[in-house]
Amino acid sequence: MKEVTGRRCSRWLVLAGGALFLSALAVVFGSSVVTSAEAAGGSGDQVSTVATSIRGTSLADGGWRYDAVIPGGGSIHIIEKSLADGGCSAKATMTLGPDQVGFRVDQDDDLGVCTVTPLAVGDAEAEESGGSSLEGSGSSSAAKAGVVTASTSHSAGYYKTWFEDPVHADVNRVRNSINWYYNGSQVSSYTASHSYWWLSESGWGLKENDFDYGFGTNHDWAYSNSYVHYKNGIFCALTDTHVYYNRNKVRGYQNGTLWGHVDWTKSGNCSGMLHTHYSLVRTLN
């Protein structure tokens, strides 16, 4: 799809990280930090602390960029671009250090502002009600030969990306999860899984999907990633609305780091009304 300048993709975007103290969000690249006394909005997930706003940087090609480094190993990097058909594409990458629990990112109504909400132990993201879903998993325990260590650690987590409509109802979601054992030198075994969900009652349908999992180079990480295409033929009166997750990825590293990335595109004349959200969450440490 052809890129175009001068328009913003939509009004919403966000991220968050556990053991993240807002006062410690001190190192930010390419953006300024504005503290806020309001908890993150969006799909109604419960959080235990206030949010921090990150002002994006306007790029020369008309896109927006958000970057932040969070002490403890967390990071946020998002680049979004408008498309000629009125749609939008974005790349979002985030990481959690070995001792961080999780964070969520939502885009504010204000132009070029994202809200980052840390998640603490015990915080739970709300599950969607109704709709349709598809889940699956895969695993491996084939350790790399020649690597011997004294102890093994165990962790698990997921990376989730989802869209909501103008009335703040979630309409589709992709979540990739990884449950892995690591020892500082390699990942020895893992279970990878995926969960797709879409609001079928409002016209959304699953058109295509593909799930992949395995070990990374030299068993430095284990991964779970998905390609998913959702379509709605009634959301917009004159055109179909499409959302492509190409791909949604999560990795568990040999040092305990949790990493998530998504490449998404939304298209159709009304796709600008869909708002994006992200969360990277450790569920076991």
- State the distance separating the first and last CA atoms: 41 Å
**Strand elements, count:** 19
Rg: 18 Å
Residue stretches low in confidence (pLDDT < 50, at least 5 long) are 1-7, 11-49, 144-148
The best one-word shape is: globular
User: How many domain units?
Assistant: 1
Percentage of residues in DSSP E strands: over 45%
Tell me the layout of helices and strands.
Layout: E1 3-4, E2 14-16, E3 32-35, E4 52-55, E5 57-58, E6 64-70, E7 74-83, E8 88-96, E9 102-107, E10 113-119, E11 132-140, E12 153-164, E13 170-182, E14 187-198, E15 204-215, E16 221-232, E17 241-253, E18 258-267, E19 275-284
Parallel strand pairs: 2-10
Antiparallel strand pairs: 1-7, 2-9, 3-4, 4-10, 5-6, 6-7, 7-8, 8-18, 9-19, 11-14, 12-13, 12-19, 13-14, 15-16, 16-17, 17-18
Could you please describe the fold and organization of this structure?
- The protein is an all-beta fold and 285 residues long.
- The protein has one domain (3-121, 152-284).
- Helices cover 0% and strands 55% of the residues.
- It has strands at 3-4, 14-16, 32-35, 52-55, 57-58, 64-70, 74-83, 88-96, 102-107, 113-119, 132-140, 153-164, 170-182, 187-198, 204-215, 221-232, 241-253, 258-267, 275-284.
- The chain has a 10-stranded mixed sheet with strand order 3-4-10-2-9-19-12-13-14-11, with no helix packed on it. Strands 1, 5, 6, 7, 8, 15, 16, 17 and 18 form a 9-stranded antiparallel sheet that branches.
- Strand 7 (74-83) and strand 8 (88-96) form a beta hairpin.
- The protein is globular.
